[in-house]
Amino acid sequence: MTSPDVPGAIDRATDPAADPGARHGSSQVDTNPYRGLLPDLPAYACTNCGHWQRWPAPGPQVCPVCADVRNALPEDGFEFVTDKQADELVTGFWRPAPVDGVTEFGTEPRFGLDSRGWVVETDIGLVGFECAPWYTADMLAELRRMADAHGGFPVLASSHVHGYGALWQLQAELEPRVVCVNVHDLPWTKAFRVTWPADDVLTLAPDLTLHRTGGHFPGHSVLHDSRRGILFCGDSLKVDLDDAGDPVALSAHKAFHAQIPLSHGELREMLAVVAELDFGVVATPFEMVPGVTTDHVVHLVQRLLSGPPDAAPVPLADL
Q: Which segments carry the region annotation Disordered (predicted)?
C-alpha cells in the first residue's frame, strides 16, 4: 500500500514501526527477510576515500570510487583496512545538529572523505541519512538507545556513494527494514543490500521525502525535511564556510576534485526539483549549514545556466 499523494511512498503498512518483531533487540521471531543475503566476504575500506567494499582475501587492489572521475586518486597508491583495523584507527562522536530533532554521528581523526551520518526523528521512528565512515561500539549503543526511545530505526538511506560511509555496518547491526538509494546508483552498493530502490520521488516518513536530482551521479538524490525546513543536499551543492563556520559561497559540480561543472541539462533537472522545496538549512554529507535557502540555490542554478558551465564558487551575497 502506498501513499495516494506520492507514487511509491513508504507508509506505516510497510514500516517496521508497525511490526515490533522487525526491530532490533526484539524478543519476537525475526521477520527481516533480507538477513543473510549478502556474500559472506570480508569488508575493506579504502583509506583515501573511506569506501567500503566486500572482497575475497587478501583484499581489493583498486577502489572503484577513487578510480571514478568524481574523486581523487591516492598519490601513494591504494591502501585498504579491515573493519577491525578501522575500529582501532578512529573514535566516534555524536552531537545534536543545529536543528532540533537531528543528531550528527562522525569519527575522529579524519578517515576517508570524513562523511557524517544524520539521524532524523520522525513519526515512524528514526530515519538515517548518509553514514559516518565507521561506527564504534559506543556509537552503536547510542543508536540503539535512541531507537528504543523513538520507536525504532525503520529506514536508512543515502544520497549517493560519497555519503554511504559504513552504511553496510548499520544494516548489519540495526537491521532497518528499508535500506534505500536511487535505482540508478545500485552499481555502487555491493557492500550492503538495497531493499527499496527509489525512483524519482519517495516519501520515507511523514514530512521526509527523497527526490532524485541526478547531475553529480545519475541517481543522486536529496532528502527534504519539510517539517524542519532542511534540505539534505548530498553533493548537489558545495558550501564554502568562513572561519566562524558561516556560509559564504555556493557551487555545484559534476566532479569537485577535477572541477568539472554540471551540464546545462543537469542543472535544469536539478532546478526543477529544488525550486519546489522550501528550506532554510542545507546538510551535505559533511556539515549542516543554517542560512542557505531555496532562493540561494535557485539563483545559483539560474546564474550557472546563464553562461558557459562553471564550477567556481559564487558568493552568497551575490545570490
A: 1-32
Q: Residue type for 16, please? A: P
Question: What does each C-alpha distance from 41 to 34, 56, 59, 71, 263 come to in angstroms?
Answer: 16, 6, 10, 25, 39
Contact assessment for residue 202 and residue 6, using Cβ atoms and an 8 Å cutoff: yes
Q: Residue 5 corresponds to which cell in the numbers above?
A: 499523494
Residue type, 33: P
pLDDT in tens, 155-207: 999 999 999 999 999 999 999 999 999 999 999 999 999 999 999 999 999 99
Peptide bond into 109 cis (omega under 30): yes
| pLDDT, tens digit, 9 for 90 and up, residues 261-270 | 999 999 999 9
Which domains, and CATH codes, for the chain? 43-318 (3.60.15.10)
Q: From the CA atom positions of the chain, what is the Rg in Å?
A: 19
The predicted model scores a pTM of 0.90
